[in-house]
Backbone:
C-alpha cells in the first residue's frame, strides 16, 4: 500500500513522519476489518520484509497512534536485532520518542493524554483508561457504560448475555450470569449495556 493511500485513514500532516519512519524498511500495510481482539499488529515475514495491520474502523488519530505503536515494534526489533522483549524497555523508549516527535499531529485536547501515556507506554491499549475514554465517545441515546461505572447489583448485558454485578475484587469486577448462574471476572473498562428497571423485570 502506498503512503498516499494510507493517508486517507490518517490525520493531516502525517506524511513527513511516515516518510521518515518507513524509509529504511520494506513494509506491507494491511487495512483490516474491525477486530475486537486487537487494534493492530506487527510481524516480520519469512522474506525479511515487515507486515503491519491496522483496523480500518478506527478514528483517524487512533489509527495513527496504533500505526506508531506497531512501527515502534519494527524499528526497535531492527535496531536491537530481536534481542529484546516485545514490549520491553527498548520498545517503550522507541514508542515514546515517536509519540513525542509527532505530538503536533494530535488535537490540543488529546496531546496532554498522549504526553502522559508516553511516560510509561502500555502494551495494551485497554490498559490506558484516559485513551480508552477519549476514543469511546458516548452516545446519549444508548445505555453503554464501563463496568467500573456500575453499582453493586446493577444488571447489564454483554455479548447477548445478561449479568449482575456482585463485587469488586482487586482490579476486576465479579459478576454472575443471570441465565446459568456462573460467575465471571470483568475488566474495569469492559463496555457493557446497562439494563434499565423495565428491562430487568
Residues:
Amino acid at each position: 500500500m502506498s503512503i498516499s493511500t494510507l493517508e486517507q485513514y490518517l490525520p493531516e500532516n502525517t506524511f513527513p513522519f511516515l516518510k521518515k519512519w518507513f524509509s529504511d524498511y520494506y513494509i506491507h500495510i494491511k487495512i483490516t476489518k474491525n477486530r475486537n481482539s486487537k487494534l493492530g499488529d506487527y510481524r516480520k515475514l519469512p522474506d525479511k520484509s515487515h507486515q503491519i495491520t491496522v483496523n480500518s474502523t478506527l478514528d483517524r488519530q487512533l489509527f495513527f497512534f496504533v500505526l506508531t505503536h506497531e512501527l515502534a515494534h519494527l524499528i526497535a526489533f531492527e535496531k536491537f536485532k530481536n534481542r529484546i522483549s516485545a514490549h520491553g524497555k527498548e520498545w517503550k523508549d522507541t514508542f515514546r520518542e515517536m509519540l513525542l516527535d509527532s505530538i503536533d499531529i494530535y488535537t490540543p485536547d488529546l496531546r496532554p493524554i498522549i504526553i502522559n501515556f508516553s511516560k510509561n507506554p502500555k502494551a495494551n491499549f485497554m490498559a490506558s483508561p484516559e485513551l480508552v475514554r477519549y476514543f469511546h465517545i458516548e452516545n446519549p441515546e444508548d445505555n453503554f457504560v464501563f463496568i467500573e461505572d456500575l453499582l453493586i447489583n446493577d444488571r447489564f448485558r454483554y455479548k447477548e448475555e445478561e449479568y449482575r454485578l456482585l463485587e469488586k475484587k482487586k482490579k476486576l469486577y465479579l459478576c454472575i450470569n443471570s441465565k446459568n448462574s456462573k460467575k465471571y471476572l470483568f475488566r474495569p473498562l469492559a463496555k457493557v449495556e446497562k439494563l434499565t428497571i423495565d428491562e430487568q423485570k
Notes: The CA atoms of residues 34 and 55 lie 5 Å apart.
